[in-house]
From TrEMBL:
<dbReference type="GO" id="GO:0005886">
    <property type="term" value="C:plasma membrane"/>
</dbReference>
<feature type="transmembrane region" description="Helical">
    <location>
        <begin position="145"/>
        <end position="165"/>
    </location>
</feature>
<feature type="transmembrane region" description="Helical">
    <location>
        <begin position="177"/>
        <end position="195"/>
    </location>
</feature>
<keyword id="KW-1003">Cell membrane</keyword>
<comment type="similarity">
    <text>Belongs to the EamA transporter family.</text>
</comment>
<feature type="transmembrane region" description="Helical">
    <location>
        <begin position="74"/>
        <end position="92"/>
    </location>
</feature>
<keyword id="KW-0472">Membrane</keyword>
<feature type="transmembrane region" description="Helical">
    <location>
        <begin position="207"/>
        <end position="225"/>
    </location>
</feature>
<keyword id="KW-0812">Transmembrane</keyword>
<feature type="transmembrane region" description="Helical">
    <location>
        <begin position="41"/>
        <end position="62"/>
    </location>
</feature>
<feature type="transmembrane region" description="Helical">
    <location>
        <begin position="263"/>
        <end position="283"/>
    </location>
</feature>
<keyword id="KW-1133">Transmembrane helix</keyword>
<feature type="transmembrane region" description="Helical">
    <location>
        <begin position="122"/>
        <end position="139"/>
    </location>
</feature>
<dbReference type="Pfam" id="PF00892">
    <property type="entry name" value="EamA"/>
</dbReference>
<feature type="transmembrane region" description="Helical">
    <location>
        <begin position="98"/>
        <end position="115"/>
    </location>
</feature>
<dbReference type="InterPro" id="IPR037185">
    <property type="entry name" value="EmrE-like"/>
</dbReference>
<feature type="transmembrane region" description="Helical">
    <location>
        <begin position="237"/>
        <end position="257"/>
    </location>
</feature>
Amino acid sequence: MYLNRFKSSVWFPIAVLLIAMTSIQGGAALAKTLFSEVGAQGVTALRLGLGTLILIVIFKPWRLRFSKEQRMPLLIYGLALGAMNYSFYLAIRTVPLGIAVALEFCGPLALALAGSRRISDFIWVILAVFGLYLLLPLGKNIGSVDIKGAMLALIAGGFWVLYILTGSRAGTDHGPATVAVGSLIGALVFVPISLSAASSELWHPGIIPIGIAIAILSGALPYSLEMMALTRLPARVFGTLMSLEPGIAALSGMVFLGEMLNGLQWFGLLAIISASVGSTLTAQRNKATIESITQ
């Protein structure tokens, strides 16, 4: 009885989304523990390869049909998905998980603010740039952030932007099932690349079960939970909650990996989260205003 009431309450999709974000970052932390044995590339091969197999079983992509106009966006979407995973795992070899996710988040944040002329949005830009300044070692030692790893996280954010732009076009008719096709495209390219640089320990019997856990925690489970939350939450609330992901990543890094951030890094992380929350709230408010005027 209590469970049924909870499922029908407003708190259920919020709890589901928080679980999804925790699952993704828990999966990333688990993946990082394997780096010393199979390398970042080996983990990428496990994540993409096994994750794709799980998605294929769930969504059965061979039943889908894509129009001629959707095929090129679908191809770019799949390649962006694979490249995003590949560059992100290379980034977290040397960069704390929370900082890497915050840097990656700058991609979607830049997309949300691109072309804006509102004064409020310039505040979010300044706040995000300030957060980047605190997170990156720009000419002075403010922490132990590796600049190459930081650049890889930003590159992953760039591929995330491409993933968003092309995914909305490729998935018009098939929704979340498009992820299975995109993941297959990405896996066909980046799994062989990753395997070529992976350690031979990748094939150890004890590694595969951990790889399956990573694939579930970082892919199949959160994708399903996010879709459940997205259908029950207003876009403004969904976007605002998703902005908390860098903070969840930082906590995951602390709890599971012992990655401690200094005060300035936490402040930079908070600045980027605030910029993301602010841009989400402003964008949704302005969208609602425009729609009310045009009706």
